[in-house]
Amino acid sequence: MAIVTTEGIVLKTHALGDTSRIVTVFTRDHGLRKLVAKGARKTPSRFGYALEPLSRSRLVLYLKADRDLHLLSRAEVVDPLGSRIADLSRLAHAQAALELVDRLVWGEEPHERLYALLVQALDGCARAPLEALPAVTLAFQLQLASELGYRPRLD
Questions:
Q1: pLDDT of residue 41
Q2: How far is CA 28 from CA 44, 86, 127, 154, in A?
Q3: From the CB of residue 26, how many other CB atoms can be counted at a distance below 10 Å?
Q4: DSSP letter string, 2-53
Q5: What are the sequence ranges of the domains in the chain?
Q6: What residues have CB less than 8 Å from 113, skipping those under 6 apart?
Q7: pLDDT of res. 26
Q8: Which pLDDT score is estimated for 102?
Q9: Rounded Cα distance, 133 and 90, in Å
Q10: pLDDT recorded at residue 106
Q11: d(Cα 37, Cα 74) in Å, to the nearest integer?
């Protein structure tokens, strides 16, 4: 069992029992991970806003090599992007980026450039003018495909 501190973006969450939550996180140093956050559904939760989708958080994990679910010990918010997005169309574009990463990236290997690309795309969804949001999403999709080895030919 290794105790690891890393930064990650919360993609989605699911309830687990009465008090716990399964959190899917794309981390900078450890790829896509599923974590068990014990006591995350209690009010007040010791994790606060750090486990909400669209949050960029600093996480302390207990990683076991032979498990798919790892234990989350501590989480603190680095950037609460979800609380900064007030417009529904911005939220839809940001959620589309999370959904793409969740469905296309698999495995637990680190991918720092893809993590930086996701951070940049989410920041673009929060800051870009409304009429530029489709362009931000399309640029993210093309760069994601290129990073994953599916570079499209546009000629």
A1: 79
A2: 28, 26, 22, 30
A3: 21
A4: EEEEEEEEEEEEEEETTTEEEEEEEETTTEEEEEEETTTTSSS-SSGGGGST
A5: 2-82, 85-147
A6: 147
A7: 95
A8: 93
A9: 7
A10: 82
A11: 9
CB 27 within 8 A of CB 50: no
The pTM score is 0.89
Structure tokens that stand for 91 in this block: 């939220």
The first and second tokens of residue 95, run together, are 């959620």
Look at residue 2 in the predicted model and tell me its pLDDT.
87
Position 84 scores a pLDDT of: 83
State the alpha helices, DSSP H only, in 34-155: 81-84, 88-104, 112-127, 133-147
Q: Tell me the sheet residues that pair with 31.
A: 27
2-82 has which CATH code? 2.40.50.140
Show the low-confidence residues of the chain (pLDDT under 50): none
- Cα dihedral 95, 26, 72, 38 sign: positive
